[in-house]
From TrEMBL:
Gene designation per UniProt: pyrF
Residues forming the catalytic site: K96 (proton donor)
Protein known as: Orotidine 5'-phosphate decarboxylase
Lineage: Bacteria, Bacillati, Actinomycetota, Actinomycetes, Micromonosporales
Biochemical pathway: Pyrimidine metabolism; UMP biosynthesis via de novo pathway; UMP from orotate: step 2/2
GO molecular-function term, one example from the UniProt record: orotidine-5'-phosphate decarboxylase activity
Length: 276
């Protein structure tokens, strides 16, 4: 079975390294002339999938915007994931889960088990209960060719108060997460299947990403003020493993499919100039 890391590398090589988030904000539904209900959510999500799933490497539905509409929203999330994968995009489901190991196993089964209706290619997780508590997700990912992206240095301004704090060992919390994930990916050929989330807004922080050997999701571009020109300072020699991620910046070009594609193309070109 092909690992997620290898599938992602192949997708980034053939389609270019770009992730587009599917974040159906109420404000975007209004901007697209859609009602703020399940029908609007469905139209929005399917339009994005139809416009982009056959060309971008990764689509990243943000679960919160689907959960907002209860069971109907979850059913639309299931179809969004399925249609995206059928059209050839890898799906990174942004759910930011993290719990004690026994509960984490249930989350892992919900999102990474091939028999689950919510099965995605990869999920986002939070290491706040300790990286070790995420083990069931790493194991499920390995068993099913899936991936896991662990929050390390997030794009929001509140992140550094926790992530830059020093541990008793004299490293920052974020560096501890980075180092533990690096160990998990050690020996993986080309790209490991456990990624990190490192915001495109954080600037130069002095964290060492050189040993990660896994994908580096960079959200925060566009709407949050992150600029592709800033990626080199953040990622240094690891730029080849960076997956830049845009949501509102691209989505606000809709609902016209050609306009969505053009916005994604502009984002890819701007990032490509830095990532190469
Ligand atoms: O895991 C994420 O994707 C994520 C991590 C992070 O540090 N910052 C961040 O903004 N995100 C997500 O990325 C998306 C950013 O959306 P835009 O700001 O509209 O591009 C949202 O769905 C966030 O939840």
């Amino acid at each position: 079975m092909e690992t997620f890391g290898r599938r992602l590398r192949a997708a980034m090589d053939t389609r270019g390294p770009l992730c587009v988030g599917i974040d159906p904000h109420a404000a975007l539904l209004a901007r697209w002339g859609l009602p703020d209900d399940a029908a609007g959510l469905e139209r929005f999500s399917f339009t994005v999938v139809e416009a982009l799933a056959d060309r971008v490497a990764v689509l990243k539905p943000q679960s919160a915007f689907f959960e907002r509409f209860g069971s109907r929203g979850i059913a639309i999330l299931e179809s969004t994931i399925r249609q995206s994968r059928e059209a050839g995009a890898l799906v990174l489901l942004d759910v930011k889960r993290g719990d004690i190991g026994s509960t984490m196993a249930a989350y892992a089964s919900a999102y990474l088990d091939p028999d689950s209706s919510l099965r995605a290619d990869a999920i986002t997780v939070s290491p706040y209960l300790g990286v070790g508590s995420l083990r069931p997700a790493f194991d499920a990912a390995a068993a099913h060719g899936g991936g896991v992206f662990v929050l390390a240095l997030t794009s929001n301004p509140e992140g550094p108060s926790v992530q830059h704090a020093q541990t008793a060992a004299g490293r920052t919390v974020a560096q501890t997460v980075i180092d533990e994930i690096s160990q998990l990916n050690a020996g993986a050929s080309d790209l490991g299947s456990v990624g990190l989330v490192v915001g495109a807004t954080i600037g130069r922080t002095g964290h060492d990403l050189s040993a990660v050997n896994g994908p580096l999701l960079a959200p925060g571009l566009g709407a949050q003020g992150g600029d592709p020109a800033g990626l080199a300072a953040i990622f240094g020699g690891s730029l080849r493993n960076v997956l830049p991620s845009y949501s509102r910046e691209v989505l606000s070009a809709g609902p016209d499919a050609a306009a969505l594609r053009a916005a994604a193309e502009r984002a890819a070109t701007a990032c490509g100039a830095v990532i190469g």
